[in-house]
Amino acid sequence: MGFIAWYLTAQPYEHLLGDIAWALFPQKEVFLHLAENHVFSIGLRDAGEATIPQLTLIGHNFGFGLVITGSVILGTRDRTWILRLIGLCCAWLLLLLTQTGVLVAAAHTYLLAATRPEASLGFSLFIKSVHPTVAVFPIVIIVMWLVIPFEKSLPGAFVIMPRLKSGRRRTAG
Fold it and tell me: How far are the Cα atoms of 60, 69, 104, 171 from residue 136, in angstroms, in the given order?
């Protein structure tokens, strides 16, 4: 089920992610391209200036977080459906913001590394941190979802847990 959901949602999600990130890109100098094989390519528009090759980020890693967090959050039995939906929306929003930030940071880091040779150390550190950020963050969200008792930490005015019913029945009288 997860693979089918991932397959059907990967391309539209990657396009949404690319569209949001594109608005924050240094568009005059750097391009963003999503290939059919689910790879984001980032490079300089004027390839003659390039001292480093194009940056490629695998798009499957971005969709991985959606499927995994969705499966765990919706599959948790001891939480109410309302809380599960709220948790899913919050988790997916966090993932979208984080992944957009990663793409935008990749563009700015790439531009810096291409135009200034002294920035190559920062560029290599960024590249080494992309995969853990994109792959580990969903796991962190899942651990938080499973460990923190959200029902008990909500204020009394906003109760999501179902009310317990007493065992007594009213008799017709």
Answer: 14, 11, 19, 57
